[in-house]
Amino acid sequence: MSNTEQPPFPTQEADRLFAREQPRQDFRFDASVARVFPDMIRRSVPGYTTIIPMIEVITEQYAQPGSHCYDLGCSLGASTLAMRHGLPESGCTLVGVDNSEAMIERCRHHIALDDHPLPVELRCEDILETTIQDASVTTLNFTLQFVPPAQRPELLARIAGATRPGGVLILSEKIRFERPQEQEVQTRLHHEFKRANGYSDLEISQKRSALEQVLIPETLSGHRERLEEAGFRDVMVWYQCFNFVSMLAFKPA
């Protein structure tokens, strides 16, 4: 296990996608985003470089021999690689799924460069349609927030139904808060985090506009309720920084 909080990939092309004024359009995980994604997520998501190595730790603790482990919405493969290094030599099958061909292409490249013997099955598929079976660890790392809210319960129910007793779902999300004052404070702090990482007010504003119809955050209580309705228990937050959290949801043994 690598005990580090360094970025999962060396910083590649700098994220300047929203540096110039442009017409509003919805955010897409296309080739332009894939090129700058390591820099974008490092500078946009507080705690990301802590969450990734901890996914390795959690996988090591809860992966069951002979089971499947899934990274749903794997993007460039940061959490996939973390899971890979956390899996014991126990015949586990590791599967990464993403519906962006540009992301899967770069993910395949990163996996090929990683010095680890465990094979990784990559699928360029919609996570709402991909087959999930006999799982012990599943990761949704800032993925569920991009799924239409009406389709989230069915996805979580499928994951819970396919998870072995004692298995776990790792769910990382941007959340919103029930109290307006708390929402305002947490949003402002998040924007200050971005400014501290070199983003301009124009970049922050334009990206927020591009995401507002695509990334739909929910409250922590809403996540807990739906996870329990899906069949998980003992839903707990293990990490939070501003309006970003990561949770563990367990399948009853």
Structure description:
The structure is a single chain. The chain has a seven-stranded mixed β-sheet, with helices on both faces. The chain has eight helices and seven strands, in the order ααβαβαββαβαααββ. Helix 2 packs parallel to helix 3 and helix 5 packs across helix 8. The chain has one domain (31-176, 213-250): Vaccinia Virus protein VP39 (Rossmann fold, 3-Layer(aba) Sandwich), CATH 3.40.50. The longest helix is centred in the last third of the chain and has 17 residues, at 180-196. By secondary structure, the protein is an alpha/beta fold. Helix 4 links the parallel strand 2 (93-98) and strand 3. Keywords: Methyltransferase, S-adenosyl-L-methionine, Transferase. Residues 71-167 form the Methyltransferase domain. It holds the Pfam family Methyltransf_25. Homodimer. It is an enzyme of class 2 (transferase).
